[in-house]
Design goal:
This protein is of the alpha+beta class. The protein folds into two domains: 4-112, no CATH class; 121-248, Alpha-Beta Complex (Outer Surface Protein A, domain 3). The chain contains eleven helices and five strands. A three-stranded antiparallel sheet has the order 2-3-4. It has a two-stranded antiparallel ribbon with strand order 1-5. Strand 3 and strand 4 (193-199) form a beta hairpin. The protein starts with a helix and ends in a 5-residue tail after the last strand.
Length: 253
């Protein structure tokens, strides 16, 4: 059975007002709801708002309310489908990368609300006492990777770091946008602050091997003849809370 709230929401986005609510009150409620949605989405998707501007962003927010209305009172958990919706709006055809930018914004938002990840620093000593074929690197849940056919990390950094927004960087972004090379964006949290950087394809492969639970020696073997450097990567990964622990491998596996 429909609730009063469900009938109200349907009436807000319907031209025929199936709930028979007062049209004047409905118009006021609609304006307030759209304003709340715009504020919430602008917090979660700041890059998208900067890219497409206030008018198109408001239009997208209205479409989002209609297609994927919030199901919880916390606006902060709303927006998972925004990237997909943006990719379907004909008004945004001139922004082919905006859907991927939304996915990256949402990854940043999601990680900012996630619980802290702890690193077992004592376990790192196993790297000095055990052989590479007897240890496994465990990864934390405090990082995410978003891939795109566009220079996603460059676009994000250009809109979030004033030092990055130079004419030279803008030229590089425009040049990359015309290419078809895939770029990955690594989202991580350092000192309780979410940050983004480009992640090379080799490093993505490396992290995938570790996520599969490979022994360190096997993962290193897979990375031979690549530009990946484990000695350089490890301290940075620990500092970025990507590595959570080192454990002994199951030697019977």
């Amino acid at each position: 059975m429909d609730t009063e709230q469900q009938r109200l929401i349907r009436s807000i986005f319907s031209h025929d007002n199936p709930g028979n609510f007062d049209p004047r009150g409905l118009a006021i409620y609609r304006r307030n709801l759209v304003a709340s949605a715009c504020r919430a989405l602008s917090v979660t998707f700041p890059t998208v708002e900067q890219l497409i501007g206030e008018s198109l962003f408001r239009h997208a927010a209205q479409q989002m309310l209609s297609e994927f209305p919030p199901t919880a009172p916390d606006w902060g958990v709303w927006g998972e489908h925004f990237g997909r919706l943006l990719g379907q709006l004909p008004e945004l055809e001139s922004y082919p990368y905006v859907s991927d930018c939304a996915q990256l914004d949402y990854a940043c938002h999601k990680l900012s609300r996630a619980a802290d990840c702890e690193t077992d620093f004592d376990s790192l000593q196993l790297l000095g006492t055990e052989t590479a074929d007897s240890v496994v690197l465990k990864l934390s849940e405090c990082f995410l990777i978003v891939t795109s056919d566009y220079p996603l990390a460059d676009i994000w950094l250009a809109h979030h770091d004033s030092d990055q927004l130079t004419e030279e960087r803008i030229r590089r972004i425009r040049k990359k946008t015309g290419n078809t090379a895939t770029q990955g964006a690594l989202v991580y949290r350092k000192n309780h602050r979410v940050q983004v950087r480009e992640i090379p394809a080799d490093e993505q492969r490396w992290l995938a091997f570790l996520q599969q639970g490979m022994r360190l020696s096997d993962a290193l073997d897979e990375m031979q003849n690549t530009d990946f450097n484990f000695e350089n990567w490890l301290p940075e990964a620990v500092f970025m809370n990507i590595v959570s622990a080192v454990t002994t491998a199951d030697l019977t596996a």
